[in-house]
Amino acid sequence: MKAAVVVFPGSNCDRDVAVALERAMGRPPVMVWHKDSDFEDVDLVVLPGGFSYGDYLRVGAISAHANVMREVKRRAGKGVPVLGICNGFQVLTESGLLPGALMRNKSLRFVCKDVGLKVETGQSLFTSRYETGQRVTFMAAHHDGSYFIDDAGRRQLEDREQIAFRYCDERGQVTPEANPNGSVANIAGIFNSEKTVLGMMPHPERMADPVLGGEDGRAMFEGLVEALS
Amino acid sequence: MTAEPNPEITPELVAEHGLKPDEYARVREILGRTPNLVELGIFSVMWSEHCSYKSSKKWLKTLPTEGPQVIQGPGENAGVVDIGDGQAAIFKMESHNHPSFIEPYQGAATGVGGILRDVFTMGARPVCNLNALRFGDPEHPKTRHLLSGVVAGIGGYGNCVGVPTIAGEVNFHPAYNGNILVNAMTVGLAQADRIFYAKATGAGNPVIYVGSKTGRDGIHGATMASASFEEDSEEKRPTVQVGDPFTEKLLIEACLELMETDAIVGIQDMGAAGLTSSSFEMASKGGAGVELDLDRVPVREDGMTAYEIMLSESQERMLMVLKPGREDEARRIFEKWDLDFAVVGQLTDTGRMVIRKNGQQVADLPIDPLAEAAPEYDRPWEPTPAQPEIAPADVPASEDPGAALERLLGSADLCSRRWVWEQYDYTVMADTAQRPGGDAGVVRVRGTNKALAVTVDCTPRYCLNDPVRGGMQAVAETWRNITAVGGRPLAITDNMNFGNPEKPLVMGQFVGAVKGMREACAALNYPVVSGNVSLYNETADTAILPTPAIGGVGLLPDLSKMATIAFTAEGEAIVLIGETRGHLGCSLYLRHLAGREDGAPPPVDLAAEKRNGDFVRGEIEAGRVTACHDLSDGGLLVALAEMALAAPDEIGAEISVPEGTDVPPLHAWLFGEDQGRYLLTVAEAGPVLEAAREAGVPAAAIGRTGGASLNLSSGHTIWLQQLRDAHSGWLPRYMQSDD
């Protein structure tokens, strides 16, 4: 399997996700510069976390218009899997690859903490190593992670099983207290309708090594390798 | 084209520039003439307390700065220590106190930006940030606003740059009502043979400006930081700089990319006093002269004068000297990252700084006298009168230790700092092995099984009552905190925050703290490799508590041996290491339960400190310790409660309190702040007690983990649930948080 990690100016989790990918794939991903309008054929494109363009104007808005994104959109259209984490999720919604928008956290403060996630479906490239309904722990670290979509949009996501993860408590219950940022219906991550694009706020790459306090994220990368090799 | 203003240099203008009459006489002596305005401005910032260390230099020179682990001591942008395998840790701490009081978000943010630059300018990739924050009385009307702004500013900058903030401390005391302290520290990693210095050599070599454009912000920031506040301090807002962490992130990547080549001769960030201090310091260190053409400096707005360009403190800028002919290679890298790159001058062999603007010479100054011959004062000082040693029997015993503990844990001094550190990204870079909330932060050295342990500590109330003991204790506490996670302490950086040094009592606090630090550093083989001094932290004649904040860095050769404070299992033995006399003078118990802040602080027995610490570290490295916590503010019972509450499922303990006539009274045993102590948990106490006896280390088994409360053999039961609410609730409630 080959993967690419896009580097925007201000990306700061590009190296972290590259480490997690290399560990799962056995070889390093290709790092793709945002100004490049083409890059080699890969089986997975990752948009990493960070503050691309400083989050100036609006989170993800400038990156959505980077040269490289035209190519990412083209490949997504052809079914190449795309994973956007944190700022990468914000870029995906801004570029129209995923519905909805990410807004400032309800508390108005940056939040960095372990978050419990309920896996809404194990039936996807990204979640095949998880059971539907399983509770996993990832790390949230964001200022603009409050997912918003209108009621009709939310119902559509639910009906088409496009919700990948919801914030949950210790016992796996999706409760208002477990919601770290005010996201609609505790949504932490969503798929496109074909389930080939996943955007999520919490960081699986920061929970892919026991030294970091957990390994729940590893299964996502290992599952991708299994599915795409 | 704007003509350079050329006013007459009057005594008033000299005074406005913060130069004393005798200092100005020296300026004229060096030049052999009257300076023009540009030159006066340059002298004023270079000779400001902030840039010249003129009051503190005499004493700082007495600190131990050498050791086999030291690659670079004080005098460079940051200190460098050897961590083995050809790798080096590079670190420094710096204050941004004055700006943070005036504009907390930007003041704190640019403090983080400045210290990051000090570290990556030496060729290191920053791997973690720390901070030491002091605020006024929680009841003071401004405290909430300042705390909220500073924390948001630190997070806003560090999070965006993508460097984890993994440790720090926050204190409150009315003495900081008019002068908060914001001390930021960065630690970076580099190859030991790829370190870059701020030294300009080679006549004819090009001088390069990179980073952000120069604007009119922060002019005279260094001079502001060298004076006390009057009631009008908030009118100084225009002297505060504005940070752009996005540009900083690009600057880090571009500089590190260029540093992979061998094009750089010398490099320094433009911090306080901007282009002036960076060019003078680099030239002075390399014995070079410089010609600068200010028309080539990228500027944000038209019509900036030479005076403004030289004194601007716009952020995210660096000055470099390149090898000849390497400009295009370097330019390509900076343009790739969309950063300005300009050749602004060249080195000469004249030993002079010649500055041109609009084709005209606007300054011509000799470099060495300015940079090296800055004034140095031996200011008069008085020692702090000794405070009485307070006997445990003279402090009223609380009838209910549980209530006393709850009060302490639910106070501003000891409550959980979670509300603060959850606003910092502490796991970006995916190497954080120990998060905030323990004794020290730990980051793995990427790609290895080694790690750095880092901490910042100071107990200002000790320093006020006895500066010598306080200085000693601050150093010892960092050493202890590194030891408690299993690290081998390597070296420190210091951030000396004091009031007006022209007052003999304040100067005496500084001298005393340095003396205590010196003794501790020497006894613990723990030298100072970098530091910063912030004086004049006074408002309307009220000085802050003397606050020599110490940042310590240690090495864990094997990360798998790391200890944390959380109880890990039920039924384990709890062992107290170190001697307990029940010292309550100057303690938090005295402050919160008796409403007093007097008394001598606890003495630090440095020989015992070293013996006890080396023993504890040895036990951790041998894999016998399941949890470890040092004893500091609040003493034994507070430390026990913190260990119990840190366990994911909360584990209590049964504790046997000592009885007899030769032991301290219960309240002193539980809350005394005797130094050099640790709590360990181990499967069985026997072997550890035996090893301690052989090592001459005081050790006692005081109980076992288990249950949902702290049960004292004196008949007191303290429920963890209640403690948790007090401990975790205070700060969110105080900040009126809604979650």
TrEMBL record, chain A:
SUPFAM superfamilies in the record: Class I glutamine amidotransferase-like
Cytoplasm recorded as keyword: yes
Pathway where this protein functions: Purine metabolism; IMP biosynthesis via de novo pathway; 5-amino-1-(5-phospho-D-ribosyl)imidazole from N(2)-formyl-N(1)-(5-phospho-D-ribosyl)glycinamide: step 1/2
Keywords: ATP-binding, Cytoplasm, Glutamine amidotransferase, Hydrolase, Ligase, Nucleotide-binding, Purine biosynthesis
InterPro entries assigned: Class_I_gatase-like, PRibForGlyAmidine_synth_PurQ
Record SMART domains: GATase_5 (SM01211)
A molecular function GO annotation: glutaminase activity
Superkingdom: Bacteria
A single BP term in Gene Ontology: 'de novo' IMP biosynthetic process
Transmembrane segments: none
Active-site positions on this chain: C86, H203, E205
Annotated EC: 6.3.5.3, 3.5.1.2
UniProt-annotated location(s): Cytoplasm
GO cellular component terms given for this protein: cytoplasm
Catalytic activity: N(2)-formyl-N(1)-(5-phospho-beta-D-ribosyl)glycinamide + L-glutamine + ATP + H2O = 2-formamido-N(1)-(5-O-phospho-beta-D-ribosyl)acetamidine + L-glutamate + ADP + phosphate + H(+); L-glutamine + H2O = L-glutamate + NH4(+)
Family annotation (HAMAP family): PurQ
Record function comment: Part of the phosphoribosylformylglycinamidine synthase complex involved in the purines biosynthetic pathway. Catalyzes the ATP-dependent conversion of formylglycinamide ribonucleotide (FGAR) and glutamine to yield formylglycinamidine ribonucleotide (FGAM) and glutamate. The FGAM synthase complex is composed of three subunits. PurQ produces an ammonia molecule by converting glutamine to glutamate. PurL transfers the ammonia molecule to FGAR to form FGAM in an ATP-dependent manner.
Subunit record text: Part of the FGAM synthase complex composed of 1 PurL, 1 PurQ and 2 PurS subunits.
Name by which UniProt lists this protein: Phosphoribosylformylglycinamidine synthase subunit PurQ
Organism this protein belongs to: Ferruginivarius sediminum
From TrEMBL, chain B:
Residues involved in Mg(2+) 1 binding: E94, N532
UniProt-annotated binding residues for ATP: Y53, K92, D494, G531
Main location: cytoplasm
Domain called Phosphoribosylformylglycinamidine synthase linker: residue spans: 16-54
GO molecular function, one term: magnesium ion binding
Keyword Iron appears in the UniProt entry: no
Record keyword Ribonucleoprotein present: no
Ligand binding (substrate): S95, H96, N97, H98, R117, Q241, E313, S314, Q315, S534
A GO-annotated cellular component: cytoplasm
Superkingdom assignment: Bacteria
Active-site positions on this chain: H50, H96
EC number: 6.3.5.3
Domain PurM-like C-terminal: residue ranges: 203-355, 570-707
UniProt KW keywords: ATP-binding, Cytoplasm, Ligase, Magnesium, Metal-binding, Nucleotide-binding, Purine biosynthesis
A GO BP annotation: 'de novo' IMP biosynthetic process
Record text on subunit structure and interactions: Monomer. Part of the FGAM synthase complex composed of 1 PurL, 1 PurQ and 2 PurS subunits.
PANTHER family registered for this protein in UniProt: PHOSPHORIBOSYLFORMYLGLYCINAMIDINE SYNTHASE SUBUNIT PURL (PTHR43555)
Functional summary from the UniProt entry: Part of the phosphoribosylformylglycinamidine synthase complex involved in the purines biosynthetic pathway. Catalyzes the ATP-dependent conversion of formylglycinamide ribonucleotide (FGAR) and glutamine to yield formylglycinamidine ribonucleotide (FGAM) and glutamate. The FGAM synthase complex is composed of three subunits. PurQ produces an ammonia molecule by converting glutamine to glutamate. PurL transfers the ammonia molecule to FGAR to form FGAM in an ATP-dependent manner.
Name listed for the protein in its UniProt record: Phosphoribosylformylglycinamidine synthase subunit PurL
Species of the source: Ferruginivarius sediminum
